[in-house]
Design brief:
Largest sheet: 7 strands, mixed
CATH class of the largest domain: Alpha Beta
Strand content: 5-15%
Number of helices: 9
Strand order of the largest sheet: 2-10-9-8-5-3-4
Distance between the termini: 30 Å
Bound molecules: pyridoxal-5'-phosphate
Number of strands: 13
CATH topology of the largest domain: Aspartate Aminotransferase, domain 2
Number of domains: 2
Radius of gyration: 21 Å
CATH architecture of the largest domain: 3-Layer(aba) Sandwich
CATH superfamily of the largest domain: Type I PLP-dependent aspartate aminotransferase-like (Major domain)
Shape: globular
Length: 361
């Protein structure tokens, strides 16, 4: 194996900023004079409690989370939230609205059906999830306990460019693959959740931002570990939290601050995505099936007209130092996941590679 780092376009787990990895490496055997690694510390120790509190405070400041919301550091991945959200919220009326715009919202929709009466408020399956529905296409049930959607569809490469208007019904949103890439008006949401391994930290941590008043109304058989109230009351430390991942998130948040915070990151990530879409749109061979206006700044899906040429592209891209550009098996073609940690330089190099391939084939 070479010693060079590659440009890793993985959809997740994905790249972490090099500076963050280097700092974690420097502190790995002896965290700030404690004589031990963060991996070896008691989660009840003063040293770890400070890491935890600082990380939570940095997160609150960067994403401008209002005081009436709690920030939880949980385990179980984003997928556990597919059950946890309905278990905790659906008791109000027994009904909920779901927007299905891709793979993960479809899984969440099917899971929620176990717990109540679920209305498919809108689906983009009619055009293979290549677009985000408009507000007037969403059919809301006024009696819904909550409205659910997924902000960025990691597999299909679409991203909501607006927050749906639900007339007071709390919104639950899966932001796993675009959290911290753009400003969010948290006050418009009931719950925001995200698995860490796309844009925040290593796999094993799930961040949940919850309006506190929504907790404490769970269905009676809700497991203790899946009750938001349990985790709020114990500040995510009912049991051992994912300590190492929380520490890594703290380092990523420091790095994010240095990039100009979330507004700074938004400008950078939008520039990267625009560059890539422009190259695809102006090429002879490549197309992006996602409708303009619905395109994701995080996951760029594209393809040629031939599966053989796609395979050739993927093979040659690996030889050129790019990894994980093969599209998801359900969509085919290629996918470049360009989360926050992907440097602009990596996208520029990929654009050059695409242009050269376009000329030579
Ligand atoms: C990756 C992903 C998930 C699944 O996350 P896990 O942490 O593996 O459960 C859910 N939703 C979205 C939008 C994702 O990108």
């Amino acid at each position: 194996m070479g010693t060079q780092r590659v440009y890793n376009f993985s959809a997740g787990p994905s790249m972490l900023p090099l500076e963050v990895l280097e700092r974690a490496g420097a502190e790995i055997t002896n965290y700030q004079g404690s004589g031990m690694s963060v991996m070896e510390m008691s989660h009840r120790s003063k040293v770890f409690q400070k890491i935890f509190d600082d990380t939570q405070a940095k997160f609150r400041k960067l994403l401008k989370v209002p005081d009436s919301y709690k920030i939880l550091f949980l385990q179980g991945g984003a997928s556990t939230q597919f059950s946890m959200a309905p278990l905790n919220l659906i008791g109000k009326t027994g009904k909920a609205d779901y927007a299905v715009t891709g793979n993960f919202s479809n899984i969440a929709y099917k899971e929620a059906k176990k717990f109540g009466q679920i209305n498919l408020a809108v689906s983009s399956a009619d055009r293979n999830h290549t677009y985000i529905p408009t507000q007037d296409q969403i059919q809301l049930d006024p009696e819904a306990s909550y409205f659910y959607y997924c902000a960025n569809n990691t597999i299909y490469g679409t991203e909501w460019q607006y927050v749906p208007e639900t007339n007071g019904v709390p919104i639950v949103c899966d932001m796993s693959s675009d959290i911290l890439s753009r400003p969010v008006d948290v006050s418009k949401y009931g719950i925001i959740f995200a698995g860490a391994q796309k844009n925040m930290a290593p796999a094993g941590l799930t961040v949940v931002i919850i309006k506190e008043e929504l907790a404490g109304h769970e269905l009676p058989y809700t497991p203790l570990m899946m009750t938001y109230k349990t985790m709020i009351d114990k500040d995510s430390m009912y049991n051992t939290p994912p300590c190492w991942c929380i520490y890594m998130l703290g380092l990523v948040l420091d790095w994010l601050e240095e990039q100009g915070g979330i507004p700074g990151m938004e400008a950078i990530k939008h520039g990267k995505a625009q560059m890539l879409y422009d190259v695809i749109d102006s090429s002879r061979l490549f197309t992006c099936a996602v409708e303009p206006g619905s395109r994701s700044d995080m996951n760029v899906v594209f393809r040629t007209a031939s599966e053989e040429l796609d395979a050739k592209f993927v093979k040659e891209s690996v030889e050129a130092g790019f990894t994980n550009l093969k599209g998801h098996r359900s969509v085919g073609g290629m996918r470049a996941s360009i989360y926050n940690a992907m440097p602009t330089e990596g996208v520029e190099k990929l654009c050059d590679f695409i242009k050269a391939f376009d000329q030579n084939n």
